Amino acid sequence: MTPIIKVESLGKRYQLGVRAEPFPTLRDALVGAARAPLRALRRRSRTRAGESFWALNDVNFTIKPGEVVGVIGRNGAGKSTLLKILSRITDPTRGRVELYGRVASLLEVGTGFHPELSGRENVYLNGAILGMHRAEIERKFDEIVAFSEVERFIDTPVKRYSSGMYVRLAFAVAAHLEPEILIIDEVLAVGDAAFQEKCLGKMEEVSRGGRTVLFVSHNIASIQRLCTSVILLKDGQVRASGNTLEVTRKYLEQGGTTTFRWTRDSPPPPEGVYFEKVYLSDRDRREVEYVSTASTISVVMEFVVESQSRGLQLGVGVMSDTGEQIFGTVPQDVGLAVPQTPGRYRAVVHLPEEMFLPRTYSIKAMLYYLTPQMLDCVDCLRFTVQEAASLGTNNPGGRTGFLALRCDWEFD
Amino acid sequence: METSVSSELSSPLPQPLPDHPLVVIEPAKSFFSLNFSDVWAYRELFYFLIWRDLKVRYKQTTIGVVWVVLQPLMMMLLFTLVFGRLAGVPSDGIPYALFAYAGLLPWTFFATAASASGNSVVNSSGLVTKVYFPRVIVPAASVGAVLVDFAISALVLAAMMVYWRVQPTRQILMLPPLVLLLMVLTLGFGMLISAINVKYRDVRLALPFLIQVWFFASPVIYPMSLVPERWRWLVKLNPMASIIEGFRAALYGKAAFDWPGLAGSTVISLVLLLLAVITFHRMEKGFADII
Question: Residue A315 contacts by C-beta under 8 Å, 6 or more apart in sequence?
């Protein structure tokens, strides 16, 4: 079948620091050129050579009509640049793209929403910005409003909307686009879980309808659910492409020295209290394959107590990538005692929901006495957290610190 | 609540793929690759942006659109008091109020539209970085929105002419071409500024001052006849000068048209527009990267 999207040796070079530095002023340009034309020229050429980088470099792929293609990769891999070029927002430095269909791109929901305008007015405005015709918007208006669930407030200025309402209305407009090619960038990272589910359903419908979809996401679960194939970008190049499961697995394995489970393969320590197996699981006790910021994980510890051990302690610590302990937890915190009589036990600690940020952590489990005496310690569990729509990633501008914790707030 | 889900979306797309790509994305090659059909395809966005500007401008104002009429009227009153009465600036035999208003009409349009469109691309960074459309729509729509104000102010002028019993002559037939010329000049200037403004933000700060100077260099509050003969060529280098004088001649029919001046103004305006189109087209590729 002939492709609907054809990308050939695509490259995009950015000048480093163009954005970070203050805007070049006319005065600098004029004065600089007048004062020392030669030096200005030389400096410019040096800057060119040294401070540019290729956000995309020699990217090639084709997409057939009706395919739903996921684009994955770490921050800085070139995903956004690729989408911006395909959406014609920015020009490539090299290469060529051929699109055999009308394109609508959704790099953010609610592009062009004006806070002073009512919901109704914004539906029209946003629809036009996304390339819909007036007649088309009129025809779908009721459907859009119904999908957004904000009927009652449709004539209220959107500046009075809650962020959830705003996002729902904005997504509703976008969901009713009918291009042949739809380009979507991580728009599901917003909104509440129920609405996200509704959007995913809508997208499944779109893709079943024969539309070609290009979908960037950090949420591997939704990629796996929606996509027929996946392109993995790394350092501006296509590292792998094809089968969704294979490529997403490859991506998750890139994480470096990732260890989710540990099983004893050496003789137990002489104290007679030791771990057999320690692993990370989800709430259903299934071993995890990866950890994302949306994951809610538990640490499962199977351990053996060979003889009566009064005062035995069990603890779990969560460490930063530099090895500093971020916090520790013990069963006494919730009023449970550690078993002290001989036997095989399994302890499970449920870590707080969605507490990880997209960084590297390690986890250790310890059996010890308060005397203090370490009996056994397993500290090799280590993983890098993937970004997904969650508490840890929903804050505009990111979240600093070591963990994302949902705290209670009050205003008086 | 039960919501209906689109059935159209789930229907398969029967159209076969076109033989040639609808869109080819390549590095920009020459500035003659202008795509006018693309601008045409997005004409509805042009109307919607004008509509948005108008809506937003008068939201939460109590008297709303009355401001459009009030602004030039108050300016006219002020100028009539200060320049017509106090300073005794001559007005070529026309009541000073009418004289000033006929100058303020094109001038206010130019000044408002030029500064709105000059800042329009920078102010639309949210759109420019997130969605594709022919960028030229942004400065053009800014000019378009001010054109609505211009039309309303023109109605006020018509009412004033009735009040002062000014009988239009055949010279009024020149008004539409003059308005067109005014728009060409304004669009050219606004577009050029809007593109340069993205890269050099000094423009934003310099623009109000530039327009102020331009105001005094244009015969809005004084007649061209007040300018010494040997300096008139200099004033006429300003394309707005001939347009404003032309407006007066067309509306009141007291003076003859200054044809060489208008021809010069037309050439300058067209060259400016061409320069603006080329500059804008060359720079728009980089808007999303530097805005």
Answer: A328, A329, A330, A365, A366, A368
Contact B56 A108 (CB under 8 A): no
Query: At residue A267, does pLDDT exceed 90?
Result: no
Mean pLDDT of A196-221: 77
A321-330 pLDDT per residue, tens:
666 778 889 9
β strands within chain B, DSSP E: 23-25
Higher-pLDDT residue of B60 and A166 is A166
Mean local confidence (pLDDT), A208-212:
82
Q: Tokens at residue A81, please?
A: 């640049």
Nearest CA in chain A to B130: A107
Local confidence band at A253 (pLDDT 50, 70, 90 cut-offs): low
Nearest to A223 by CA among A235, A207, A239, A234: A207
CA trace torsion B226, B229, B230, B233 (10° rounding): 80
Q: How far apart are CA A231 and CA B252, in angstroms?
A: 70
Cβ distance B13 to A114 less than 8 Å, yes or no, reads no
User: Which amino acid appears at position B244 of this protein?
Assistant: I
pLDDT at A25: 60
Q: At A82, phi and psi to the nearest 5?
A: -60, -45
- Classify each residue of A380-409 as buried b or exposed e, where b means 16 or more C-beta atoms within 10 Å of its C-beta: ebbbbbbbbbbbbbeeeeebeebbbeeeee
Strand, coil or helix: A389: coil
Residue A199 pairs with which residues in a beta bridge?
none
Chain B interface mutation, best of A85, A121, A187, A213, highest count of B Cβ atoms under 10 Å: A121
How far is the first Cα of chain A from the last one, in angstroms, to the nearest whole number? 63
Task: Say if the Cβ atoms of A146 and B27 lie within 8 Å.
Answer: no
Q: How far is CA A150 from CA A119, A313, A363, A364, B1, in A?
A: 9, 53, 44, 47, 11
Q: What is the pLDDT of residues B145-174, one digit of tens each?
A: 999 989 989 999 999 999 988 888 999 999
pLDDT over threshold 50, residue A44: no
Reference B91, options B100, B104, B82; nearest CA is B100
| Numbers of helices and strands, H then E, in chain A | 9, 17
Look up residue A107 and give its amino acid: L
Contact B3 A146 (CB under 8 A): yes
Count of Cβ atoms closer than 10 Å to residue A251 Cβ: 24
- As a whole number, the mean pLDDT across chain A is 82
Are the beta carbons of A185 and A84 closer than 8 angstroms? no
Provide the residue ranges of all domains of chain B, joining segments of one domain with +.
Answer: 54-290
Which residues in chain A have their CB less than 8 angstroms from residue B55's CB? Answer: 116-117, 121
pLDDT tens track for B233-257: 888 889 999 999 999 999 998 888 9
Query: Which residues of chain B are within 8 Å of residue A25 when distances are taken between CB atoms?
Result: 200-202
Q: Is the pTM of this model over 0.90?
A: no
Closest CA in chain B for residue A109: B130
| A window 248-287, beta carbon within 8 A of B | none
Q: What is the mean pLDDT of residues B214-241?
A: 90
Which position has the token pair 């000059």? B118
CB contact under 8 A, A108 and B130: yes
Q: Which residues on chain B are in Cβ contact (under 8 Å) with A197?
A: none
Nearest alpha carbon to residue A368 among A412, A307, A316: A316
The percent of residues in chain A predicted with pLDDT above 70, rounded, is: 83
Phi, psi dihedrals of residue A393, rounded to the nearest 5°: -120, 0
